Structure of DUF222 domain-containing protein:
Amino acid sequence: MTATATEPGTPLPPLVTCCAEVSGEEFDALKAVVETVAQQACPGSPYLAEREIRRVSSTDNQTLWEEAHRTARRILLNLFDHLAMLTVALTGPRVPLYAHMTVSRVTAEAAAQICNLLSPTAGYQERVLRAARLGLRSRSLEVSAIHDLPDGHPVKVHALETTTRARDEFVAMVRRAGLDVRLRGDGRPAGIRRPGAGEYLRLDPSLTDLVNEQFPDRPAGYQLTSGVVHSMEWMLRDAITEDDADGIRAAPDLLGIGSATLVAVGAAAAVAEVYARLYGHDPAAAAAASATRRSRIDQACVQEFNRLHRIRPQ
C-alpha cells in the first residue's frame, strides 16, 4: 500500500509548488491587513459608529458586542493556523493525498463565520444577536461534551457543574440584553430571537449554507472538501491509481490540490475584505493582489489539465 503520494527527493509538481507559494503569500497578506486596519479605524467607519452606540448601550449589550469581536479574533487564529499548515503540507518533501482538503474546509468555515460576525453592514444590534447566537451554541456544545464523559470520570462532576453554570449565566445575560432565548425541557438553549420577531433562530445554522452564501463563485469547492472529511468514496477514488488483489496504490490528485488551495486562499481574501470595510479602509488594492495570486493557481491548473489530457498550448 502506498501511504504517501511522493517519495523523498522527488521534485514537487509545479502546481503543488505554486499552491504552496500562493497560500504562504496569502497568509502574509491577510496578517498585514488585519494588523494594519484594526489599529487604524477611519472616521465614519462602521466600527467607530458602533462604538458610539456601544457607549450608550446596556452593559450586557456591550459585553455581547465585544464578544462578537473576541470570537472573531479566535476564529481568525484558527484560520491562520490551518492556512499555515496548508502551506507546510504542500512544501514537501511529501505531498498529501487527502489532508489538504480537510485543512481547506476549516479555513472556509472559519472565514464564513468571521465574515458573518464582522459584516460591515450588520449593524450594532444584529452583531449583538449573532454573537449571542454563536455564544449560546458554543457553551451548549461544551456542556454536551462534558456530559458525554463516562460516569466516574475524575473531571466530569466538577467540569459539568462549571460549564453548566457558565452556560446558564450566559443565557441570563443574553436575556438581560433584551433577546428571547428558548429553552428545552432540560434547560438546554434551543433558539434565539429578537422580541416579537416570530420564529426563533436555530443555534446550529448550516455551515454549508453559510459557506455557499459567502463564496458563491466556488459552488463545488466546499462540497469537495466535505467529501474527504466524511470519507466519501466519490472523493477518495480520485487519488487511487490501482486497487486490486495485489494491494492499493495512490497518487495525489493535483487538480484537487489546486481546488482546495483556491478555496483556502479565497477564504482568506474574504476575511481581509471584511476587516478592511469594517474599519473604513478601501479593500480594492488587497483584493486585486489576492485575485492576481489566485490567477496563478488557475493558470497552473490549466497547465496540469492540459498535461493530463495531452493538450498542447495554443
User: Anything to note?
Assistant: The longest strand covers residues 189-193. The chain has a mean pLDDT of 92. Residues 14-121+206-308 form one domain. DSSP finds eleven helices and five strands in the chain.
